[in-house]
């Protein structure tokens, strides 16, 4: 071993925390997968400027900066077939889905 090299050993609590974070990330990705791919992603979105829209979630980029949606219904009379919503513009997202159906897959 080269002089000045250090070996870090993680404590049990650090390992447990890392495992818990991995588990939570797996569940989060599974939820996103079901919302986007399985078509369970119907939602109401509250955005800044007091705007409420309805849409179907189709995809989310890897850093959760943008959400790709279909059938976007806005206060305007014409629905938008496809759109990208910036998460910085979103206050909340309320999903309408069968929670039991999603959880049965765990």
Automatic annotation (TrEMBL):
<dbReference type="Pfam" id="PF11095">
    <property type="entry name" value="Gemin7"/>
</dbReference>
<dbReference type="GO" id="GO:0034719">
    <property type="term" value="C:SMN-Sm protein complex"/>
</dbReference>
<dbReference type="InterPro" id="IPR020338">
    <property type="entry name" value="SMN_gemin7"/>
</dbReference>
<dbReference type="GO" id="GO:0000387">
    <property type="term" value="P:spliceosomal snRNP assembly"/>
</dbReference>
<protein>
    <recommendedName>
        <fullName>Gem-associated protein 7</fullName>
    </recommendedName>
</protein>
